[in-house]
Each structure stands twice: as structure tokens, then as C-alpha cells.
């Protein structure tokens, strides 16, 4: 890795040395390798920033990065970036150096506010979208889907949920409809529930032959002609700005889903903690504390 390489080239080279695509992340959790294209992209962006820092301070390139330099870099970053970004930077550097670094806390004050939308707001947004994007918005809201998961939706009878997880029988309590599966983060396949009306609308868009689509450099096999991924997310945000004068982003639909499901489950007598654990599985987290962020 010659020192005259660009920051981007340095980062790409470092990532290439750790790639292990095609191996299940859950079976190789602690092997120090990268098993996801999304993770590789995120780590690559972080290391490109580190390489720029090295150049700016005349410290050489990524080959010259040490634990002390890394901790100083993270300490400086803590003043300007969120905790999420700081943690991603730390994880990327840990992967590159092959060692654990001290967790650094972001100094930037994060103002927490709800990102959810009301049902009326979602109706207005979908009304302002094209037909295929509007249907995707309704599906993402009703099922709690991420943008890229819309590209992976298939009937539950055609694909099984990931077997390495223990799925609660309380999922979808109080709802009736048709079950589908989607592929989420880390390749986790989970079931989602759609109303019968939405399922009928979705099935009307079934492609005669599945097609390959590329979103954020990741390849997916799409079975329905609906919106999804970055293009749908951008459509959602633009429609939200036009109709409401603001946008919380398409991810706000998952916040809406989590909050609505919490209310539904608790109204049926489920405790707050049990409801949160159930919603965590429904949105594909398996982490009640992560789900807490959706409930603000």
C-alpha cells in the first residue's frame, strides 16, 4: 500500500484484506472479518476519514496507524460527530488494527425527538407519491420494514425465517393478515405481517420473473414491482417535505410501527417489558434497548 495512494484507495485496500463475504455472520461473529457488503461500505468510509486525518497531521498512511493515534483521533471526532458515527469509526479501526479500543463518548449534544408519523400524515405522504412508491410506503408502515427490506419481500411459504433465532409466538398478536418474509441486517430473515388488503395489492404487482436490482452497491432479487431502497426513501422524504413541510425520513415509519404496536399489545393486557420484547422481534432487533429508541 504505497503512501501516495489516495485516502479512498487506502481504505479500499484495508477493507479488501478483511473481506469474507459469503460466510454467515452469525457463524463467524468473532473472527475479525467483514461478512456484509453494508459493513464493508461503512467501515470503508470511516477508514477513508482516518487516512485523511493521518495525511493532514503528516503521520503517514493507514499502515502507520497505532492505538495511540487511533484514540487521539476518536477523542477529536467526539466533539463533532454523533455516538453512532463514533462507534462505527471505532469498530472500523479495531478491525483494521486487530485490537480493542477504549469506547469514546460523543461530546455533541444529541437532541432526541420523535421521528414517528401519524397515520394521517402517512396517508398524505403516500397520496403524493407514485403508485408503486405509495404502496411501498403503506407496506413499510404496516409491516415495520426498512427501505432495503422492501426489495426482498416474499411470501412466508416461499422462504423460512432464520433458524438460528428463537421466534416468539406472541409476534403479531392482535393482527390478522398474510405473513411474508424479508431479509434484514446481517442477512437475518424474519416474518412480517401485512393486512389482507395490502397483501392483495402487493400480489397484484408480482413479477412474472424475479429481477436483480442494485441498491447502495448491494444486489437484491426482487419479486414484486414496488418501490424500495434509496429511490423509495428519497421519494418518501420529498413527498413528506411537499405535503407536511418537514421530513423525518422513511425510517420514521419504523418508529410509527413500533409505537403503534406497543399500544396495541399493551391494550391487550401485555406488560410494557413483554410488549417491547415482542416489538423488538417484529422489527428485527432482538434487543429491547435498541427498540427503546423507536418509542420516543
What this model shows, in words?
The chain is mainly alpha-helical. It has 2 domains: about 5-95, DNA polymerase, domain 1 (Orthogonal Bundle); about 120-295, hpI Integrase, Chain A. It is about 45% helix and about 10% strand. It has 11 helices and 5 strands. The strands form 2 sheets. A 3-stranded antiparallel β-sheet has the order 1-2-3. A two-stranded antiparallel sheet has the order 4-5. Helix 3 packs antiparallel against helix 4 (about 85-95) and helix 5 packs antiparallel against helix 6. It is globular.
Q: How large, in whole angstroms, is the Cα Rg? A: 21 Å
What would CATH call the class of the largest domain?
Mainly Alpha
Would you list the SSEs in sequence order as H and E? HHHHHHEEEHEEHHHH
Strand content: 5-15%
Ranges where pLDDT stays below 50 over 5 or more residues in a row are: 23-29
Mean pLDDT: 87
Question: How many helices does DSSP assign?
Answer: 11
Percent helix: 40-55%
- Largest sheet descriptor: 3 strands, antiparallel
**CATH superfamily heading of the largest domain:** Intergrase catalytic core
Which outline best applies?
A: globular
Q: How many β-strands, per DSSP?
A: 5
Amino acid at each position: 500500500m504505497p503512501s501516495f495512494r489516495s485516502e479512498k484507495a487506502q481504505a479500499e485496500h484495508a477493507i479488501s484484506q478483511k473481506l469474507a463475504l459469503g460466510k454467515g455472520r452469525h457463524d463467524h461473529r468473532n473472527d475479525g472479518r467483514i461478512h456484509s457488503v453494508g459493513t464493508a461500505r461503512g467501515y470503508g468510509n470511516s477508514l477513508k476519514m482516518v487516512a485523511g486525518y493521518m495525511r493532514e497531521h503528516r503521520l503517514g498512511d493507514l499502515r502507520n496507524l497505532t492505538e495511540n493515534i487511533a484514540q487521539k483521533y476518536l477523542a477529536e471526532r467526539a466533539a463533532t460527530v454523533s455516538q453512532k458515527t463514533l462507534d462505527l469509526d471505532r469498530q472500523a479501526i479495531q478491525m483494521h488494527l486487530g485490537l480493542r479500543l477504549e469506547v469514546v463518548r460523543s461530546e455533541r449534544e444529541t437532541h432526541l425527538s420523535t421521528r414517528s408519523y401519524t397515520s394521517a400524515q402517512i396517508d398524505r405522504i403516500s397520496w403524493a407519491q407514485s403508485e408503486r412508491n405509495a404502496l411501498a410506503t403503506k407496506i413499510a408502515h404496516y409491516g415495520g420494514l426498512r427501505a432495503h427490506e422492501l426489495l426482498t419481500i416474499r411470501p412466508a411459504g416461499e422462504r423460512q425465517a432464520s433458524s438460528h433465532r428463537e421466534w416468539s409466538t406472541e409476534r403479531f398478536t392482535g393482527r390478522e393478515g398474510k405473513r411474508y418474509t424479508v431479509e434484514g441486517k446481517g442477512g437475518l430473515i424474519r416474518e412480517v405481517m401485512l393486512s389482507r388488503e395490502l397483501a392483495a395489492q402487493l400480489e397484484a404487482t408480482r413479477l412474472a420473473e424475479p429481477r436483480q436490482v442494485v441498491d447502495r452497491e448491494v444486489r437484491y432479487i426482487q419479486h414484486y414491482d414496488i418501490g424500495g431502497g434509496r429511490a423509495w426513501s428519497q421519494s418518501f422524504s420529498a413527498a413528506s417535505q411537499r405535503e407536511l413541510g418537514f421530513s423525518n425520513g422513511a425510517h420514521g415509519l419504523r418508529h410509527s410501527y413500533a409505537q403503534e404496536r406497543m399500544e396495541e399489545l399493551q391494550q391487550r393486557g401485555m406488560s410494557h417489558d413483554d410488549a417491547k420484547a415482542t416489538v423488538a422481534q417484529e422489527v428485527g432487533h432482538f434487543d429491547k434497548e435498541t427498540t427503546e429508541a423507536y418509542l420516543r
